[in-house]
């Protein structure tokens, strides 16, 4: 697997073979959709940001919606699965005790969220309103469940420290329920973040206390 060569979606996109104008439009759309939202971004703004004409945008994308889907579809179908598989493989390497595993999960997933802020913000905003994106993302979650159960839940249970009444979905909600709000807090309310390391350590403790027998 070569997912470690990419730090974020931008790096992954740069490595894909496509015309320069198309890549510029995708990168500009990624940034502007994350900053202003889909409805708050015009193709004229994307063209200006990308340093291309609107005609070039419509050469590669029939509509602004097509541009959005061309950003999010590879993220859901290619980029996230690569990092998912890499995460699962590394998770097994950190098995041993609950504290070690949760420390890895919190720091690895938080790093992923920060390095892909634009992609994550667009994805979550579109999940609320776009049925096509919800369908793609639901398939990703469904396809990930067997591997998650086999590797992550198995590793957690091997510590003999996790509550037996916790289902895989409850475990996911416990972890995401702590990490995602903190990620959004850092993005929208950065002035409220005083010490990131201490905050992440606190998140680890909350998750451990919730999962621990």
UniProtKB/TrEMBL annotation:
<feature type="DNA-binding region" description="H-T-H motif">
    <location>
        <begin position="42"/>
        <end position="61"/>
    </location>
</feature>
<keyword id="KW-0238">DNA-binding</keyword>
<dbReference type="Pfam" id="PF00440">
    <property type="entry name" value="TetR_N"/>
</dbReference>
<dbReference type="InterPro" id="IPR009057">
    <property type="entry name" value="Homeodomain-like_sf"/>
</dbReference>
<dbReference type="InterPro" id="IPR023772">
    <property type="entry name" value="DNA-bd_HTH_TetR-type_CS"/>
</dbReference>
<dbReference type="GO" id="GO:0003677">
    <property type="term" value="F:DNA binding"/>
</dbReference>
<dbReference type="InterPro" id="IPR001647">
    <property type="entry name" value="HTH_TetR"/>
</dbReference>
<dbReference type="InterPro" id="IPR050624">
    <property type="entry name" value="HTH-type_Tx_Regulator"/>
</dbReference>
<protein>
    <submittedName>
        <fullName>TetR family transcriptional regulator</fullName>
    </submittedName>
</protein>
<feature type="domain" description="HTH tetR-type">
    <location>
        <begin position="19"/>
        <end position="79"/>
    </location>
</feature>
């Amino acid at each position: 697997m070569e997912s470690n060569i990419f730090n974020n979606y931008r790096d992954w996109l740069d490595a894909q073979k496509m015309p320069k104008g198309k890549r510029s439009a995708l990168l500009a759309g990624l940034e502007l959709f994350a900053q202003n939202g889909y409805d708050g971004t015009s193709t004229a703004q994307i063209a200006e940001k990308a340093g291309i004409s609107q005609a070039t945008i419509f050469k590669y994308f029939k509509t602004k919606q097509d541009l959005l889907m061309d950003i999010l579809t590879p993220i859901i179908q290619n980029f996230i699965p690569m990092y998912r598989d890499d995460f699962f493989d590394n998770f097994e390497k950190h098995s041993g005790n609950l504290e070690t595993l949760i420390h890895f999960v919190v720091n690895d997933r938080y790093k992923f969220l920060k390095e892909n802020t634009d992609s994550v913000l667009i994805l979550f905003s579109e999940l609320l309103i776009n049925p096509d994106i919800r369908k793609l993302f639901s398939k990703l979650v469904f396809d990930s469940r067997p591997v998650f159960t086999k590797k992550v839940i198995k590793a957690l249970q091997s510590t003999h420290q996790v509550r037996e009444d916790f289902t895989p979905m409850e475990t996911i909600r416990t972890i995401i329920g702590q990490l995602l709000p903190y990620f959004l807090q850092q993005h929208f309310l950065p002035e409220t973040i005083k010490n990131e390391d201490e905050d992440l350590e606190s998140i680890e403790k909350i998750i451990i206390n919730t999962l621990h027998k």
